[in-house]
Structure formats: structure tokens, C-alpha cells
Design a protein that fits this description.
heterodimer, A: about 140 residues, alpha+beta, Yope Regulator, Chain: A, 3 helices, 6 strands, about 35% strand, globular, B: about 550 residues, nine-stranded antiparallel sheet, six-stranded antiparallel sheet, 11 helices
């Protein structure tokens, strides 16, 4: 895993205006997404459990906001039925619970273009989460 | 019908195009399983693919395999028939001298009066005139009464006609005041025209005081030279031989099996096996004699020779219906051009059943047919993504996605699963040990005969790509489980739980949903996705939601 993370960290660090914090298990990327707005995306990679031929999935998570009522939870679940590639999940680590945008991308660690593809996904997830955050009317950049 | 790719020509490969002898022209189709031959086929196809940017050769290398090969001799027989029609016509000309060639005209058929030359099989019809010697007579010209001239009709023999500029009035409109008699000066003052002295007219400079000019028809002489006799007052009558030459070309193909090919486009890449001119035949009456076997080559394959014989005789009898008047000579030229045409069976990995491509001719031309279509669709995502796929199946114009494409798909028989052009998703389902059936929206995934999920294809018009939506119903959704369901998504490696409302009953249901771009998946990857969703995520969701 470290290899993918290191490769990606190396690519992202070379991009101007991007802040990167890397650890052996994942990296946090803080990137500009709109006028004066920034978003943080966390990237981790893990092997998929079960009979999936050792498939590895990159998981990209970006905070959208907080769920402080049941109506919102239902809306988020309904939103998940849409045709967008990214889903929403609820994180109970904080109070009120946080809403995160999640993207799961199967990856081939031998793919030469992997780092640039993941970088594109990071940007897309970041922008998407930022849009939702604005719709929800609040949020937090910290994961 | 498959057409040859004009941009691809490869030097002759002896293995694929050995010499053809005339006795091999009706050989049957021959199959080959020799590895050397199959490898040669593969090399030609790969070299061809290399010249097409829409077929990345690196991808094709791993995906393309030749599975069979067959060849047959294909011949293009061309018969040219040159027709020479002749007739004698009476002509006349001015008798510039008083002596006529009164010898008797040549007798017999017009075809024998002058030797026939130039059996050239011209592409375009041509006509020429030959003056025959003898048979001439000289007579007084009747058009001019043997005077050599006629009264000029234009001037009535006066030699003068009304002036065309002023119409015989001798006056023209003044150009300065335009006939008004007044003109405006630069200082704004209007006064009498100084050019015409306010008369508004001026004298015509073309004609004289009578308003007439010299007649141009007779040059003022009042009479013209007689046209037919040229002023000689006598006419010479003679005979001319008119000769018209035209060529009729007929072609046909000889092949053991009819393959779906445009052979005409291949003729330049074939070897000439036989060419022969048959003697000139002159027909003045009755039907022309049929050709005997000795009159054409008997040394070609018997079946080909028989058909050629009947074709040549049909050409020879062309036009014999009016044979009583016919004064026709026919010359025949035939040629046989042949080459081996190879039908190469191939498979693309994950691409379904075997398909064919054709290789033929001395420069190994290729008729890509299905291969180009399949490769360009299977690898469209390399360059064009979803748009290429839709263009291939005719659902999109060059300038963008069709907005009502789904409606059109449904009205065309609900073939939306055809968007799975690589059968990536279908293969993945089967690799995961599951079965599928086709739905209007895509596929239904079956386990032990029961539907457990749907896979829908739909375009993401904003991105111009095709998206694949997996959905599996988990069960009824109760409010107290909403938080647990949304929280569970944090632990899923793939997919997410979603809430849907049944349109007919209004009932709430949880569904496991996964959305990906078609261009991001291959059969193995998606098989892994399905295995996780159905074997890990779904059971986990079922136990959590129902528990």
C-alpha cells in the first residue's frame, strides 16, 4: 500500500497550491475547489474482502457537513439512489454525526497512469463534496 | 458487402499469394490450420491495425487471435467486344474544278471497301469519315441558279441598312444632360446644356446623312456568295464511308464460394492469368458463327473455360437481331485476372463469437469489415469514450449525444444492453458464477434462477460517457434503520445503501447501489466488484437492516 500512497504523494506534492500530509496508511490532500474555497480529501487503499481476486480499492473521503436531523438522513439516503458515482455515508465519530462523500475506485497497482487517475478522482470528489457542503449550508474541512 | 481499405497495401507475401496457374482457377476452397499461415494472417492484420489510430495495436496484441483460415482462387473475367459499324453516305461539296472522278465506286460491303484498322477497344465511342474514290458527278448549283451568288436578304440588294445605333433617326440622346436640355453645374446653378445647346440630342456619329450604314451581310455589294457551291456555281457529289467504333465491356467473377466481397475493387491487385484476342468477325447477314473450342484457349480449368466460351459467344452474337442491315465487324479480347482471397477467422478476447476479415491480392489488401467496427467500439474508450460507442450504433450525431437516446433505444426494441459492446458486464456476471437475462434497461442478474440485482446502462450526458448502475433490493426501509444504513456505507469497500420509493405503492426500500463508468471497468474488475457487492456487502446489509 505504501508504494501507491508514496507514488501518489510524490505526484501531488509537485502540484502548486496543494497541501499534502502523508502517513503510511493514507494521505490528506487539501486543494482549492472554488473561489477561495478549499476541500480536504482523504485517500486510503485497502484490499477488498471476499472472493474478489485480491482487488485493491482506493477509497476517497471528503467531509460534506453534519447530520443534525432525521429528515436530512433520509434525504442523504435518497440521494444515494442517484446516478452519481460517489455516495454519502454517516460518520458517528463526532457529535453531531458527520456526512462524508465517499468514492471507491478499484485500482491496479501496476498501472503506470494510476497516480494521475487518482489525482483526477481526488479533484472530482473534492469539488463534489464542496458543492454538497454549500447545499447543506455548512461544514468542516477536517476529517 | 466488405470493401477494401484503400489506405492499406503490403508487399506480396509468397505464402499468402503463390503463383496461380490456369488449371487452378476452379480449385475448391481450401482451409488451413498451419501455424505459419495463421501467423502470417495475424501479422497482416496487426500491420493493418497499426495504421489505424482508432485501434491501439498494444491493446489488440493481447486481445486478438487468429482462429482459422481459408483461401480460394477468385478470378475476374473481362470480355471486351469492339463493334465497327459502317455505312456509305452521299455528300456534296463546291466543285472547285470541272473534272469529276467518274470511276466506278468500290463494290461490296462497306466493311471491305477500306481495310479495318486499329482494333483498340476504345473506352469511348468514336466516328470517322473516309472519302471513297470514284462515283463522282458535277452539276450546276440549283441554289443560286448556277450564278455563284444570291441576293442579300439583309439589305434587299441595296447594300445599305438602317443604322443600328440611332435606328435611322440620325440623332442620339445627349449624354451630358440625358436628353433634358438642362444640366446642373458644380456651383449648384442649373442652366442650358452647353453640349447639345439645350436640344437634348446630338448627331449620330455612326451613320451618314441618310441614317443608313453599309450592309455587313454583303459588305455593301447587295449580293452574297452562294454557300453550297462556294461561288463556283457547280456542285460535286461524292460518296463517304462513315465508320463508328464502340466497345462493350463485360466482367464477371468466378469463385468456388460466394464470399461477401467487392471483387471489382481488387482487380488492380490481381495477376493476369490469361489474355487473348480473338480474330475479327465480319457479319453482313444472319447470325455470326459460334466460336469453336479451338478459337479460344482450352488450357484453362474446364469449368472456367466452359463459362468463358458461352460468354464469348454471347458477346459475338450481340446485335444480331438486326443482322439483315448489319454491316458490323466485331473483335473480341478477353482476359482473366486472379488472386487468392483469404478469409481469416479471429476472436477478440471477451468479444463473443468468431468473426472474419478478408485478405487478398498481390499487395495483401484487407477488407476490415467487422474487425474495424468491433475494435473501434471495444477500444473506443481509449480516445472517444462513450460517444464512439453511440456513434457506432447510430444513436448519436457527430456533434453530441442524442438527448432522447433512451427513448429511441426502447422504441427500437429495448436493446439497451447492446451498449455493453465489449460484453464486459455480461462476461463479468458469468465469471462471477451468475446468470443474466436481458431487460429493457440492461441486465437482470440471476442467482439460482431468482433475480437478485439489475444492471442498468445509461449515459452521463454531462461527461459524454456511459455509466453502469448496479442495484440490488435489500428490503423494506423503516425510519429507525435510516441512520444504521447510512452509517454502514462508511464500512463498505464498494457500493452504498440507498433509499428508493416504489412509484406504484409508495413503499420505501433499501437498495444496494454501485455506479461506475463503463470505460473504467473490464470483465475481471467488474467480476470482482460483483463478487464483493453480492457476496459481502449484500449479506451484511441484509443482516443489519433486517436485524
Amino acid at each position: 500500500m505504501g508504494t501507491i500512497i508514496q507514488r501518489l504523494g510524490h505526484v501531488i506534492r509537485s502540484i502548486k497550491g496543494i497541501n499534502v500530509e502523508a502517513s503510511p496508511t493514507g494521505i490528506l490532500v487539501n486543494l482549492p475547489v472554488a473561489k477561495g474555497r478549499r476541500q480536504t480529501v482523504k485517500l486510503t487503499a485497502a484490499r477488498v474482502p471476499g472472493d474478489s481476486n485480491g482487488m485493491i480499492v482506493a477509497r476517497l473521503v471528503s467531509r460534506v457537513g453534519f447530520a443534525d436531523n432525521h429528515t436530512l438522513v433520509r434525504k442523504l439516503l435518497e440521494f444515494n439512489a442517484g446516478r452519481q458515482r460517489y455516495g454519502l455515508c454517516l460518520s458517528m465519530d463526532c457529535d453531531p454525526p458527520a456526512v462524508d462523500a465517499v468514492a471507491c475506485v478499484p485500482i491496479d497497482i501496476y498501472d503506470e497512469g494510476l497516480a494521475s487517475r487518482l489525482w483526477q478522482d481526488i479533484q472530482e470528489v473534492g469539488r463534489w463534496a464542496d458543492n454538497l457542503e454549500r447545499q447543506l449550508g455548512g461544514g468542516d474541512d477536517d476529517l | 458487402m466488405s470493401n477494401w481499405d484503400p489506405s492499406f497495401k503490403l508487399p506480396r507475401i509468397g505464402l499468402l499469394q503463390p503463383e496461380i496457374t490456369p488449371d487452378q482457377l476452379d480449385n475448391p476452397v481450401q482451409g488451413s490450420s498451419e501455424q505459419l499461415v495463421l501467423d502470417s494472417y495475424g501479422n497482416v492484420v496487426r500491420l493493418w491495425a497499426d495504421s489505424h489510430s482508432e485501434i491501439p495495436i498494444g491493446r489488440l496484441e493481447g486481445k486478438f487471435s487468429v482462429t482459422s483460415g481459408a483461401r480460394q482462387v477468385v478470378s475476374l473475367v473481362t470480355v471486351h467486344t469492339q463493334f465497327i459499324n459502317r455505312r456509305v453516305e452521299k455528300r456534296e461539296e463546291p466543285a472547285s474544278n470541272s473534272t469529276a472522278d467518274t470511276r466506278p465506286l468500290p463494290s461490296g460491303s462497306p466493311l471491305s471497301m477500306v481495310p479495318i484498322e486499329n482494333i483498340a477497344f476504345p473506352e469511348e465511342s468514336a466516328s470517322n469519315t473516309h472519302r471513297l474514290p470514284g462515283g463522282e458527278t458535277i452539276q450546276d448549283c440549283t441554289r443560286c441558279g448556277a450564278t455563284g451568288h444570291n441576293a442579300c436578304q439583309a439589305c434587299g440588294e441595296t447594300g445599305r441598312v438602317a443604322c443600328g445605333d440611332c435606328g435611322g433617326t440620325k440623332l442620339l440622346r445627349c449624354g451630358t444632360c440625358n436628353g433634358v436640355g438642362l444640366t446642373r453645374f458644380p456651383n449648384g446653378v442649373t442652366a442650358n446644356c452647353p453640349t447639345c445647346l439645350s436640344r437634348g440630342t446630338r448627331s449620330c456619329p455612326s451613320c451618314g446623312p441618310d441614317g443608313q450604314i453599309r450592309c455587313s451581310g454583303c459588305n455593301g455589294e447587295g449580293f452574297t456568295t452562294c454557300g453550297p457551291c462556294g461561288g463556283y456555281a457547280k456542285i460535286c457529289h461524292f460518296h463517304a464511308l462513315i465508320s463508328e467504333v464502340s466497345t462493350l465491356t463485360e466482367s464477371y467473377v468466378i469463385a468456388s464460394e460466394e464470399w461477401n466481397l467487392d471483387i471489382a475493387g481488387l482487380s488492380e491487385s490481381m495477376s493476369q492469368i490469361w489474355a487473348e484476342d480473338l480474330p475479327l468477325t465480319i457479319t453482313t447477314s444472319g447470325k455470326p458463327a459460334a466460336l469453336s473450342a479451338e478459337q479460344y484457349s482450352p488450357e484453362i480449368a474446364p469449368n472456367v473455360a466452359r463459362r468463358l466460351h458461352s460468354t464469348l459467344n454471347a458477346a459475338l452474337s450481340q446485335g444480331s437481331a438486326d443482322s439483315k442491315k448489319a454491316q458490323t465487324a466485331r473483335a473480341l479480347r478477353f482476359q482473366i485476372r486472379s488472386c487468392y482471397v483469404h478469409r481469416v477467422g479471429y476472436k477478440l478476447d471477451g468479444g463473443g463469437s468468431e468473426a472474419s476479415v478478408y485478405i487478398a491480392g498481390l499487395d495483401n489488401r484487407i477488407a476490415p469489415g467487422v474487425l474495424l467496427e468491433r475494435c473501434s467500439t471495444s477500444t473506443a474508450w481509449f480516445q472517444r469514450g462513450f460517444r464512439g460507442i453511440l456513434q457506432t450504433i447510430g444513436l448519436v450525431e457527430d456533434n453530441g449525444l442524442s438527448k432522447n437516446f433512451k427513448k429511441r433505444l426502447k422504441t427500437s426494441g429495448g436493446q439497451i444492453h447492446m451498449l455493453d459492446t465489449d460484453t464486459t458486464v455480461a462476461d463479468a456476471i458469468q465469471k462471477a458464477g451468475l446468470r443474466l437475462s436481458v431487460l429493457d434497461i440492461g441486465y437482470e442478474v440471476l442467482s439460482d434462477g431468482d433475480p437478485i440485482a439489475t444492471i442498468e446502462f445509461t449515459p452521463d450526458e454531462a461527461k459524454g460517457s456511459l455509466i453502469v448502475i448496479f442495484a440490488s433490493t435489500i428490503g423494506p426501509a423503516f425510519r429507525e434503520k435510516f441512520v444504521a444504513a447510512l452509517q454502514m456505507n462508511k464500512n463498505f469497500s464498494l457500493g452504498r445503501l440507498a433509499l428508493t420509493v416504489d412509484a406504484s405503492t409508495g413503499a420505501l426500500k433499501f437498495k444496494l447501489v454501485d455506479v461506475r463508468l463503463y470505460s473504467d471497468i473490464d470483465a475481471d474488475t467488474y467480476k470482482g466488484v460483483l463478487a464483493y457487492l453480492l457476496n459481502v456487502a449484500r449479506p451484511h446489509a441484509l443482516s443489519t437492516i433486517k436485524g
